[in-house]
Please model this.
Amino acid sequence: MEMTLNQLSDKYLNKEVSITLLLTDVKVKKARNGKEYADLFLQDQTQKSEARLWDYSVYSSILSQMEYPCILDCVIQVGEYKGQTQLTMKSFQSSKDQDITIDQLVQRSKWNAEKMRDWLDDYYEFIQAPHIKELVHKLVFSEQHYEKFCTHSAAKTVHHNYMHGILQHTLEVLKYVKIVAGTKRLTQRQTDRLLAMTFLHDWAKIREYEPVPLNDLTVEGKLLGHIFIGAYETKKAIESIEGFNQDDALIIINGILAHHGSLEWGSPVLPKTVEAQILHQADKLSGDVESILAFVESQGDEDGFTDRLWNMGTDYYKGGME
Ligand SMILES: [Fe+2]
Ligand SMILES: [Fe+2]
Model:
């Protein structure tokens, strides 16, 4: 069986294993004695990991000629530091296996990609008001954006940081908000606005991040962020639709601007409608649960507590999950 990154746990402690990985970035650092070493950013279809390359000087000229992402046949030593698995790159070369493609070494959503596209259509059909439908169509379903929206990742770390991440996350949030809209008997108009702001709230992540597998923040993403870009592009699209209802416009844009829920989480305004508050809560639910699940999975399969998950401020108990 081919070795994968998620298998490199205590079981292989102090052993050297051969494994094929995607290299996405290299950070060169200096040790106290002045010697250069490097941290290699690696991934396969199971997870992302870093490995330290102590012999950087031996490989520096090879690495400087490589274009990322590239596929490497690696020999990695599994070590441990303060209870965490640590990987050391012992040697590597460009992969000789012609059959392996970059696509095969990219993490992707566990949901079926074709079905997700169908579900996205279903939620679009729930919207009734033609002007709101047109807005969502322009940004999500138009030829210019649709492929990106359906394949991009929603983050570099934390949650939904894999291929089809935006699509899966948007669908999750659409599911949650639709249930709340029905349970609380929102009007059709409120529901239309809620669905539209949900479709569009993280839309701008297609511009905030490079496509997978590199997945770095773009210059535009670093300087402007997805909240501003999303609100700005939504406003532009609204202005191109004749006679768009002004109240609907402001409410949808407030929903996008406010979806992080508070100023300290990067929203410039607070949720000012019930729709915007539902979106914020549903967005948080989707992100938090996903980050806990991914973190617990990455922490090995012994019972007991995980390390502390920084974005949730606590550790999690792994007992009896079967
Ligand atoms: Fe967001
Ligand atoms: Fe989101």
Summary: The pocket of fe (ii) ion (ligand 1) is lined by residues 201-202, 226, 259-260 (CB under 6 Å). The first strand starts at residue 16 and ends at 30. Residues 47 and 294 are 10 Å apart (CA to CA). The beta strands are 16-30, 36-43, 48-53, 70-81, 84-94, 305-309, 314-317.
